Amino acid sequence: MYGTSRNEILFDRAKKLIPGGVNSPVRAFKAVGGTPRFVQRANGSHFWDADGKRYIDYIGSWGPMILGHGHPAVVDAVQKAMLDGFSYGAPTEREVELAEEIVRLVPSIEMLRLVSSGTEAAMSTIRLARGATGRSKIIKFEGCYHGHADALLVKAGSGLATFGNPTSAGVPPEVVQHTLVLEYNNLAQLEEAFELHGRETACLMMEPIAGNMNFVRASVPFMKRCRELCTQYGALLVFDEVMTGFRVALGGAQSVYAKSLPGFKPDMTVLGKVIGGGMPLAAFGGTRAVMEQLAPLGPVYQAGTLSGNPVATACGLATLREVQKPGFYDVLAERTRTLVSGLTTAASNAGVPFSGDSEGGMFGFFLFNDLPQNYGTVMTTDGPAFNRFFHAMLDAGIYYAPALYEAGFVSASHSTEDIAATVDAAARFFSGL
């Protein structure tokens, strides 16, 4: 197979045994075309593919690697934990320490439970919200992703009296009949939905900064009204901070909104990614009254063989201790803003429509001039132009998410040289359009 890259050889092998050749769909490059890069190793802000090419990594395992790859303190903690055993299926002191750390840093969480994935955490949160309230209906927003649990794989119905329709084969319509999908940042829809269904709604689940339609913030007035309506109608306000938790700020996105809305808190929070530091670990938590509805204290069942895994908790604890060091988020946020402003200036100088935004170490950009407020607007961006941009950056050794609608991530290990090289490559691309 002379002339064929090792990435292509591995992809061909994978497609014979793994559906689509990947174990998570976006990795297949179907949205952008071309051959996925098979990662051989990573260090700091870079990874190397199967052909030995180095890339500046702006996905960081889709968010967890806030310190960069292979941070010495994290590696040391994981190596020591592994020597004591990989998994016990029994309680450990370390899972208590991790719970204490999260509760101390996120004031809205009084109790939590550890699980192994964001999907598992979101699925369990919905069950708990329904069990705690005695209600069946849930509200979510178009463009917000909360994992692949059946009740959440749903698109909007034809009106607010019509509940959602499945977006995946294998999900029976009756499974999503209690899920209402609204437009993000649409106050009128939000008001009408609660007027029609508020007394039957168990929870409203949302990404406060939606990273699954690239990067879209909930407006402060919209967030304020979500809180008010949930309180008024007795529904639980659930923040999915799998992506934003400890990524946009030490206290998560909820701490960002609390700056504009004093005293603001969600009732429940879903966490993942950064709290595991790259290991399979997630959590869901909230008020003591709600969390005590979980078995073995209450009637809502949830369990997991690998929950609180001792190696994963070691990785997560070491990561959370590093991000608490003085000035960590100031430096991270400044570096991320430098990237976004550099890209914006490069596009503007070339007369290319472009807008970008960031918070902490999370960013997004769009190939039009005004920042979007909802999924419908996001969908109007220039897909073919993004695909050309993606491959130009890939050729230059810069790895963005291989999909138009995904946020990007900067780590503490990204250097000023990394940012400058990225902006320079983008400028060359824009000037050639």
How would you concisely characterize the structure shown here?
The chain is an alpha/beta fold. It contains 13 helices and 18 strands.
Number of helices: 13
Percentage of residues assigned to helices: 25-40%
Give the CA-CA distance, first to last residue: 35 Å
**Model regions low in confidence, pLDDT < 50 over at least 5 residues:** none
Characterize the overall form: globular
Strand content: 15-25%
Structural class: alpha/beta
The description of the largest β-sheet is: 7 strands, mixed
Overall pLDDT level? 95
Overall radius of gyration: 21 Å
Q: Reading side by side through the largest sheet, how are the strands ordered? A: 4-14-13-12-9-5-8
Q: What do you see in this structure?
A:
The model has no long low-confidence stretch (mean pLDDT 95). α2 (72-84) runs antiparallel to α9 (310-323), α5 runs parallel beside α6 and α10 runs parallel beside α13 (416-431). The protein contains 13 helices and 18 strands. It is α/β, with parallel strands linked by helices. It starts with 5 loop residues before the first helix and ends with a helix. It is globular, with a radius of gyration of 21 Å.
